[in-house]
Task: structure prediction
Amino acid sequence: MRRQSYRSAALLATLLFSSSGITTWGQAQTQSARDPAIALAPKNPDTAPQVSIDRFSAKAGKLQVRTATNDLPGPNQPVNFDRGPFITQGFGPDGAPVRYYNFDVQSTTPAPIYALFRVGENRPVEGQLNIVDVIPGEKGYNDFWQVVKVTVPRDYVANAVTSLAEIREAGYRMEATPMLVNCPIVPRGSVARMRLNGGSAELHRGWYRGQVVSYFAFEEHALQVSPSGEVPLSLIYVTFTTNPNQPGGGPPSGFVTEPGSEQTHNVVQTLPSEARYSPLWLVNVYDNTDFPRVRDLPSALRAKVLGPGVALVNCPVVWVGKTG
Result:
C-alpha cells in the first residue's frame, strides 16, 4: 500500500517531464559541489511527523474562513470536499452541466515544488517524495506549483533530502521548468473523489521541512506558466442569492440554485479539453435578476455584471455532462 503511494508520487512527477528530456525555464541555480545528504540516513515517510494543516484559518482562508457558525472543519481535521460548500454544479460555455471543486482564492504567483532526478535520468528518483517549502497560511503558499527539477548524484538515496534547506546545503542544481501542477495541500485523510475522465483521486504525500504533507493532484489539463511566469486565468460568471451590493450579499449568501436542485447558473468560460482552460478563475459576479436567462456563455455575457474580476479562485472542473 505504501509502496503504491511512493510510485504514484513518482509518477506524478514523471508526467511533468517528457522522455526526451527536460524543458527548462529561467536560470538554473547551482552551488558548490558538495553532498552531505548522501551521508544522511534516509527518512521514512511512514514514521516521519505529519504537518498540521488548516486551510480555513484567518491566515489561510479568504472566502472559506472558519467561524462559530459555518461548521468548516477545524485545524488538521480531514475534509470531505465532495460536500458543500466545496463542490458546485454550474454550466460550461455550451450549456452542458459541469462540476468543479472550490479551493478558495489563490494567487497568480505559483509556489515552487521540487522533484529530484539522478544525473542523466529522465525519471524522478523512485520512492522520493516531492518537496515544498510553504503550506497553507504561510506567505507565498499557492495551490498552484511551478515544478523545479533538482539534479542529485547517481548514488543519492531516496528521501535522504526532505527540505529546501537540505537541497541548498547539498548544492544540488535546480532548474525551474514551465510546468504547473494544481496540488492543494490538505489535512491527512481528506477526500475529493471526483476527477475528469477517471483520473486518480489518490491523496499524495510530500516533504515540508522534514515533515510529511498530503495533497491532491488535479490533472484534467496540462498547465504551464505564462511568459511572465504566472498561473494562467480563465473567466467564470457567478451570481449569489443576495447581490453583493446588498446587506449580507455576495459569498455569505450562497450561490443561487434552481428550486429543489444544486444546479447553479454559474458559467465557466472554458473546459479542460480547450487549450485556453485554466482552473484558476477570474470571477465576474452578475445580477441575480438575470439568473433565469443565464445558461451558457453567450447568455452570461449578456447579463448585467455587478462585480468584474472580484477574485481569483481555484476551481478545477472534474465532471462535464451533456447538453440538453
Summary: The mean pLDDT is 90. Residues 98 and 320 are 4 Å apart (CA to CA).
